[in-house]
Design brief:
By secondary structure, the protein is an alpha/beta fold. It has one domain: Aldolase class I (TIM Barrel, Alpha-Beta Barrel). It is about 45% helix and about 15% strand. The chain has twelve helices and eight strands. An eight-stranded parallel β-barrel has the order 1-2-3-4-5-6-7-8, surrounded by six helices. The longest helix is centred in the last third of the chain and has 18 residues. The structure holds 2-phosphoglycolic acid. 2-phosphoglycolic acid binds next to strand 8.
């Protein structure tokens, strides 16, 4: 049984004060997360506050990105060692905004994934096709390339620790959600590819989240799908009420 993982990606939102206010309100709305893993990735500068207020609350705190070197002349980059110092649990890698706005390549993401695993940070690897790629019927080709490149040279034991997030680019921040059927097919394809690269034990254990306009109104239909092991939530994770509602739905499915 794969444990459901509900994660918020705050992107470039919420400074220190807003971070503290968010969690205080969230703790008033949900006290117990049952069998669900809850995670939030604030901006780097709000991470220490998030770690501090969540210390006794069983919420995982992560970063939205990192570099693959320990230190050096890499202006503006953040070392995984610094994230470890802050007691960060996980790191989002290859988010579509990193791929498309900041031109991150599959090769770069693969180096980051390897480094995160070496440092004991749980990677959330984002994959997903653009609208054009879907229309051109290239979805599976793109997903295969992204998965194959990221897992190149990763051992089966490490592969199990990776969380994959299927995030179709056309569904992110657009209000358009993939139907449960579309998400299910993509998740099935990704899990099948992991099985081909490794074996059925790794494929059965690895968690695959769905991301792209997840909201309280569609969370139930998505999270009820067997292939979907949780959600990576942008917009709806910014408000304690909507994030709490999705957590409650996750506890019930
Ligand atoms: P969204 O973002 O929920 O606002 O579509 C999802 C994501 O970017 O991870």
């Amino acid at each position: 049984m794969r444990k459901l993982f509900i994660a918020g990606n705050w992107k470039m939102n919420k400074g220190i004060k807003e971070t503290e206010d968010f969690f205080n309100e969230l703790f008033n709305l949900v006290a117990d997360y049952g069998k669900v893993d809850i995670a939030i990735a604030p901006p780097f500068t709000s991470i220490p506050k998030a770690v501090e207020v969540c210390r006794t609350k069983n919420i995982l705190i992560g970063a939205q990105n990192m570099y693959f070197e320990d230190s050096g002349a890499f202006t503006g980059e953040i070392s995984p060692k610094f994230l470890k110092e802050l007691n960060v649990d996980f790191v989002i890698l290859g988010h579509s905004e990193r791929r498309h706005i900041f031109n991150e390549s599959n090769e770069l993401i693969s180096k980051k994934l390897k480094k995160a695993l070496e440092e004991g940070l749980t990677p959330i690897l984002c994959v997903g096709e653009t609208l054009k790629e879907r229309e051109d019927e290239k979805t599976e080709k793109v997903l295969k390339e992204q998965v194959d490149s990221a897992f190149n040279d990763i051992s089966p034991d490490d592969a199990k620790k990776v969380i994959i997030a299927y995030e179709p680019v056309w569904a992110i921040g657009t209000g358009k959600t993939a139907t449960p059927e579309i998400a299910k097919d993509a998740h099935f394809f990704i899990r099948k590819r992991i099985k081909e690269l490794y074996n059925s034990i790794v494929a059965d254990e690895i968690r695959i989240l769905y991301g792209g306009s997840v909201k309280p109104g569609n969370a139930k239909s998505l999270l009820s799908v067997d292939e979907i092991d949780g959600a990576l939530i942008g917009g709806a994770s910014l408000k304690p009420q909507s994030f709490a509602e999705i957590i409650k739905i996750g506890m019930e499915v």
